[in-house]
Design a protein that fits this description.
By secondary structure, this protein is an alpha+beta fold. It has 3 helices and 7 strands, in the order αβββαβαβββ. The longest helix is centred in the N-terminal third of the chain and has 12 residues.
């Protein structure tokens, strides 16, 4: 469990790569398995455009945060006040394989609203 927390913190504070984080309804960072959270990228939410066309993006992001794989994903306005407290920072995530290095994305949003925010459960 300690290794999982350490991996998440390294990604959160940056190691020259991308910075993903799951937060709960109170905005606290989730570090345990099988707990659904709002997906953040560099401090803002992730839009579901292309993200949910297959599980590759979810698996890739879970792996980037130190988990083994994706357990579930959904999108929508689930915690509206929490979601509205963030900007949308990632859009059009497309992953031909479950490895983040294979993914393409836009690191800002063009046509998203918080009703398209991604929620993940990783294990």
């Amino acid at each position: 469990m300690q290794l999982l927390k350490l991996t998440t913190l390294v990604l959160l504070f940056g190691n020259g790569g991308c910075s993903f984080q799951l937060v709960d309804q109170s905005g606290r960072t989730i570090t345990s398995e099988d707990q659904e959270g709002l997906l953040l990228y560099n401090g803002g939410t992730v839009c579901d455009d292309f993200f949910d066309s297959n599980d590759n993006a979810g698996i890739a992001v879970c792996k980037e945060m130190g988990y083994d794989t994706l357990s579930s994903r959904r999108s929508g306005t689930i915690w509206s006040s929490r979601q509205n407290s963030y900007s949308i920072t990632l859009d059009n995530v497309q992953c031909p394989s479950p490895d983040w290095s294979s993914c393409s994305y836009i690191d800002h949003h063009r046509s998203c609203g918080h009703h398209e925010d991604v929620f993940l459960t990783c294990r």
